[in-house]
Amino acid sequence: MRAGGAFFSGTRQIKKIFFSRKIRRARLDIFRAVYELLNRMKIFFSALAFTIFSAAAFAASEKPQPDALKIRVEKDWLLLPMKGVENYSKTEIFDASGNLLFSAPALLTSGSPDWRAPVNVSAQKGSDIFLAGAKGAPSVFQTDNPPWTKPFTDRARPLFHLTAKEGYMGSLCGVLHFGGKWNALFLNNPYSMNPRAPYFAARAVGDDLTRWSYEPPLYMPQFAGGKFLYPLGGSCDIDPATKAAVLAWRFSDGSLSIGKSANLKSAEFFSKIESLAGGEAAPDIFFDKEKKLWILSIGSDSALKFFASANLKDWRECGKFDVDFDAPSLAKTHIAGGDGSLKYVVLNGDGRYLVADFDGEKFSQISPAPLRIFFGDIFGVRFLRGVPDGRLLAAAVVSQPPDLLRDVGQSFVNSMSMPFEMRLADASVGLRLRASLLREISEYFGDATDALGMPSMNFRSNIFTLPDATGNYFALAFTFNTDYLDAFVLGAGISRFGYNRKFGTFYFRRVETIRNIQKLSDPLPSGYLNVLVLLDSYSYEALFLNGAAVVFIGDSFINPEQQIKIGAKGGMYVDKVSRIPILSTTQKQRGEIAKRRLDALERERLANEQRAAQPSLQPALQAPAQTEAQSATPASPAKKIKKFLPSKK
Question: To which H or E segment does residue 591 belong?
Answer without folding.
Answer: helix 587-613
